[in-house]
Design a protein that fits this description.
The protein contains three helices and seven strands; from the N terminus they run αβαββαββββ. It is α/β, with parallel strands linked by helices. The longest helix has 11 residues. About 40% of the residues are buried. The structure holds adenosine-5'-diphosphate and magnesium ion.
Length: about 160
């Protein structure tokens, strides 16, 4: 559980240590759950110094860090066809990490080989954040979770991890 946005950002920054080129991360949660907060933290974990904002009016925003970060928000998209026609598939994404808010709107058009981050709770509620690798190659993210050996700085959050 994370109790405030800073904890969600800290968790995301810790997970970003596992990031590799070509990774795809789906952020699922209600409006106001904290998907954009997660993206901000993930970006700072990649060493991105530019401010990450909700890309609601553009399909995809690109930031420079240890790896490029491609931040996609499908909130305003009606269906997968519109998203794909809008350039979600871009060669440059192979060199960076793609974070997709509202990825469930793509349904089967979203590659199964991805990491799912599900954020439950809104408003002042604590958030339950579930990290679920869709493929064995994404299990490395679980090693970054607090309480595991790989977590050197002992972030103050606990997270439910499901495989
Ligand atoms: P989304 O992108 O999922 O619509 P945002 O990240 O834009 O959501 O907004 C989340 C809102 O919830 C922010 O106003 C943030 O301050 C607030 N918030 C409260 N508690 C938390 C928490 N534990 N984690 C993330 N955000 C939180
Ligand atoms: Mg958002």
């Amino acid at each position: 559980m994370t109790r405030d946005p800073a904890e969600t950002r800290a968790l995301a920054a810790a997970l970003a240590r596992a990031a590799r080129p070509g990774d795809l991360i789906s952020l699922v949660g209600d409006l106001g759950a904290g998907k954009t907060q997660f993206a901000k933290g993930f970006g700072s974990g990649l060493g991105i110094t530019d401010t990450i904002v909700s890309p609601s009016f553009v399909l995809m925003a690109e930031y420079r860090g240890r790896l490029p970060l491609f931040h996609v928000d499908l909130y305003r998209l009606a269906d997968a066809a519109e998203a794909l026609a809008g350039g979600l598939i871009d060669d440059r994404q192979a060199e960076g990490v793609t974070l997709v808010e509202w990825a469930e709107r793509l349904a089967d058009a979203m590659p199964a080989e991805r990491l799912d981050v599900v954020i439950e709770g809104t408003g002042d509620d604590p958030r339950r954040i579930t990290i679920r690798p869709g493929h064995a190659s994404y299990a490395r993210y679980l090693e970054m979770l607090p309480g595991t050996d790989a977590d050197a700085d002992g972030a103050p959050t606990t997270v439910e991890a499901e495989r």
